[in-house]
Amino acid sequence: MEQVRAQSAYDCDVLVIGGGIVGLSTAYAITRAAPGTHVTVLEKEPGPARHQTGRNSGVIHSGIYYRPGSLKARYAVRGAAEMVKFCAEYDIAHAVTGKLIVATDRAELPRLHALVQRGRENGIPVRELGAAQIAEYEPDVRGLAAIHVGTTGVCDYTGVARRLAEASGADIRYGARVVRVDRRPHLGVAALTARGDVVRGRVLVNCAGLYCDEVARLTGDDPGVRIVPFRGEYYDLARPELVRGLVYPVPDPAFPFLGVHLTRGIDGSVHVGPNAVPALAREGYGWGTVRPRELGATLGWPGSWRIARRHWRYGAGELRRSLSKTAFTRAVRRLLPAVTEDDLVPAAAGVRAQAVLRDGTLVDDFLIREGARAVHVLNAPSPAATASLPIGREVARRALAVLGG
Questions:
Q1: pLDDT tens profile 177-230
Q2: Core-most of 50, 177, 215, 384, by most CB within 10 Å?
Q3: What is the rounded CA–CA span in Å between residue 222 and residue 290?
Q4: What is the secondary structure of 180-198 as a DSSP string?
Q5: Can you tell me the distance from the alpha carbon of 214 to that of 209, in angstroms, rounded to the nearest whole number?
């Protein structure tokens, strides 16, 4: 690779790797905070938001689930309000629908009450509902109790990503997969793409999502985590009239996954899912996609085996629901008894980039780390789309501090 040369040879001030919603929000925040800063974004796909951003439920999360004081809690609450405002300003499809979190078993009632308390600590208005009151919002949903969260909504995150790309004024280069990074701590970074192009910048920002740990290592930094991909499988509801808005189960606090839920999207369709099963590739959107090198990297990480030993019962249930439509339907029927197998039509899956520590701990919060001339976003799964504007500002702040240092 050509070496980073004199200051005049820089192609940009900040080089962002990754054209999902977090990378594009970062580019947008940098040019807003420091007009005249030249930002280049390298995205390996032919367009933006092709993976986590464009393959999720489209929910604008309220922030009720997250530990008070955490980045997720602060950024989701702030980000939800900002996302609604951004969508309104730029005429992007969105709706504030509210959602129900429904307890269907007595053992879930203490966890439901804990969510009420957490919501209040996070400054989120919630309404507690008895079994009979659930029908006010969702006539076909059944449960012992529920809470209504009014600030939850849905939007077109792919549309948001496109608008961020346009409004940032950044040089967005699609089809630019980074295969090597040359960093000189006193000068900057140079990225080599698979097409043979070299792009030089003063600071690198790593927003590579499913490949963020690999990009960190290419840069010469030890991320301290490994991305373990979990696939979330969805169905569309053939009778969307059964669901008015958003309906969630009470989540298990031991896991970062929210469980199979029902989401009426901006197009009026209702998405059912996701589950959470190990993916056999970082972009493994089906059981038939296997990439031996990536699977080997997952299996070679000690944390992967520790997750399996610690949570094998939970994992077995998720696997059963992946392989059996009957089992998946049974999980949905806990919330929506009228659903039949014929009501569930297979839809596109997504993959969650979950950072895992060596000891098997699933990283719970957003994780942003810095290296010489580099800022790495190492854990930004859901609710990162909701929180993307505040996350982008924080990453931009760090990148500009390095740039000015």
A1: 999 999 999 899 999 999 999 999 999 999 999 999 999 999 999 999 999 999
A2: 384
A3: 26
A4: EEEEETTTEEEEEETTS-E
A5: 10
